[in-house]
Structures are given as structure tokens and as C-alpha cells.
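Researcher: Can you fold this with S-adenosylmethionine in place?
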Amino acid sequence: MTFEEYSSAGDVCTSDGEPISSKQADMNEAYSALASVYDKYNSESSIPLAAIAKRRGMEIIAPAPGVAFLDMAAGTGDMAMCFFEYQDIANHDAPSTATLVDLNADMLDIAKRRLGNTKWVKDGRVEFIEGNAEHISDIQNSTFDIYCCYLGMHNMVHRDRALSEAMRVLKPGGKIYVAEFNTGTWRIGKVVRRLLVQFVLYLITGTIGDRTMSLRLNRSALSFPSPPEFLQELKTAGFQVEGQGYRSIAYGLAALFSGTKPVECGSVL
Ligand SMILES: C[S@@+](CC[C@H](N)C(=O)[O-])C[C@H]1O[C@@H](n2cnc3c(N)ncnc32)[C@H](O)[C@@H]1O
């Protein structure tokens, strides 16, 4: 199966009746296998690159005091932690809130444990939702100032649905940020990206000891479109894109895309 075929695998039904593609079911299984070792490989083996990319990303996002932050595909909660740490340092912990959404209960359980004893949870400023980015029915229209999806969008089978949901749940003028591996549009960029993902794959395989699951994760990451293609998807979803539309992070190996929900959407959503 090619990467492209893998990224567009057909829909299947799950036991709870939620429409979910075969790719999504596969990814969910892979993330369950990965959950218990995710932070270890993320912070120790897969190079401090991931941590650097997240901190740098938060500096670029630069959330204002008191904003409502959606951490989509939150995984084990790294970006939500970065968000609150940033608020502490830059904004003297103004009463901002974070909602963590993830499809995978095992990943989200780790996020709950990691954030569980923090003042942010104790103050009732954190919410955890097990849900699908393509259909986040638990969240009302125009709820968030920031929609952040870090290394999660490549897992989504119908990115158009996820982006349409992002548009719906953002307030008018709200911002979307999506971080993914960056191939660039040139040949060497593609080779570099593939080598990086292969390297991470090697590290994951060694950690979780399951090559099938690692291959799934690898294929999924490689199926993400090039920056110009993804920027077009953002525009098609209705986001305004300024300038180049993305910033390079992690020494150019990743890209942080951004877009704004037009203010005039306020009358519609
Ligand atoms: C590579 S992890 C990234 C986690 C976290 N954002 C980080 O940067 O550490 C990808 C996450 O996307 C989640 N995911 C995959 N498909 C999803 C979907 N359709 N809706 C919500 N989360 C999804 C997975 O369960 C997994 O936790």
C-alpha cells in the first residue's frame, strides 16, 4: 500500500457507531500501543527536537492573556502544558483556559495524569474531551480564541472536515495553528523529511517493540501534503492566510501553519 492509498483508506464502522475510517481505527490502535511510552520517546529519544519545536511554536503563537485555547489531538498534553507555562511566564497566569481533545483514550489518560495535580486543573481551567477532530459535537460554535493542532493533523482522514470544525469552534478573529513535518516542495526537502521520520520510526520501534504500529505512524506522517497544498486547504476551509502562511520550526524540519477565522463569520457561526 502506498502512502497516498493509506491516507485515503475507506470508511468503516466502529462498535459505538461513530463513523471512523479504517485508517483512523488503525491509528487509534497505534497510539494506544504508543501511549505508555510516548513521553519517553518524545522527550528522550526522538530528540529534544520535539520539545524545542513545541516551545518555539508557543512563542510564535504568543497567546494573549485570558484566552481560550483548544489543544486538538492533544496526546499526552504537551502543548497544553506549554500553553500554561507560557501564560505563567509571559502573562502572569491570567485566567486562560485549555481544552484538550484527543481521539485516543489512552493518550488522553496520560494527559489527565500529567496535568492532574497542577493549579490549572485545580482552578477548573482545564477540560478533557475524548473526541474526533472531524466531528467535535461536544463543543459549541465560536468557543475558542486559538485552535492548536500539533503533529496531529496528519492522522486525520478527512482534513477538510477537521478544518471545517476548527472554523466552527473558533471565535471570529480566532487563530488556527497546525504543526507538521515539513517536506518543502523541493526534492531534497522530501528526502530529509523521509529520513527524519525513518529515524523517529527506528526510535519508536525500539521503544514499543512493535514494527507494525511504527510503520503505521510513519506512513501517516508521510502522507501529509506539502506546505502549498495544505495552505490551499486552509484557504478552502475559509481561513485567511497572511504572508507565507507558515513558519519553519525545529531547524526547518517542521512547519507551523497559521490562519485566521474572518471576523465577518460572526454573523454565520
Ligand atoms: C503524534 S500525536 C501528537 C500529540 C501532541 N499534540 C503532541 O504534540 O505531543 C498525535 C495525536 O493525534 C491523535 N489523533 C489522531 N486522530 C485524531 C482525530 N481524528 N481527532 C483527535 N485526535 C486524533 C492521536 O490519538 C494522538 O494522540
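Model: Folded with S-adenosylmethionine in place. Residues 3-261 form a domain with the Rossmann fold fold (CATH 3.40.50.150).
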